[in-house]
């Protein structure tokens, strides 16, 4: 299996499992280490040996997994590079492929990013629909803080400086600054003044990521890492 463009390889265990399911006797010999950037392809990623039927049957499924997960790891690594020196961490979101969340979040971690919440059980994110249902940012924040299970963090999505202040007065510990420009994020961070940790999200791309990193925010979350990462170009070449 050959990596044909620069990037980070991830998902070798999954690709191996595809071939093992077809033929447990397939030999699998990884050549490259996962999680490391390759600048000068093409380069062999792994060598495998077995009956042609198993190799050809598993080829596309294994490559689909490996290209998808490596693409996510690569997109994350590029984002992390953009934020070097700022102290800002890159987060993923729950915008993942159904059934593949665990694998895709592992790919983000392999690319140097940090995993945000996995589901609705390990953190509470108060979003616009919750705010509308509860009757406002303050009411939604208070309800979430009062009813959260022990040890579960609460984050509140805010779309304006007025909402930021309302969330802070209600006791918000972490504030998500939603769809704000880098300048607006900087103003919000100054207003918060360390009273809560901060996260910027929405409309963030590789092109403007550095600007968000310089705003003073603690975290930047990017749904595109998992919902829009292009597949890394890989191929399998059979040698009879």
What does this molecule look like?
The chain is an alpha/beta fold. It has two domains: 2-80 and 229-235, Alpha-Beta Complex (Aldehyde Oxidoreductase, domain 3); 82-227, Aldolase class I (TIM Barrel, Alpha-Beta Barrel). The chain is 41% helix and 18% strand. It is elongated and about 70 Å long. The two termini are 14 Å apart. The model has no long low-confidence stretch (mean pLDDT 97).
From the coordinates shown, what is the CATH architecture of the largest domain? Alpha-Beta Barrel
CATH homologous superfamily annotation of the largest domain: Aldolase class I
Helical content band? 40-55%
Topology pattern, helix = H, strand = E: EEHEEEEHEHEHHEHEHEHEHE
Q: Give the tally of β-strands.
A: 13
Number of helices: 9
- Main sheet properties: 6 strands, parallel
Roughly how many Å is the radius of gyration?
21 Å
Residue fraction in strands? 15-25%
CATH class of the largest domain: Alpha Beta
Low-confidence stretches: none
Mean pLDDT value: 97
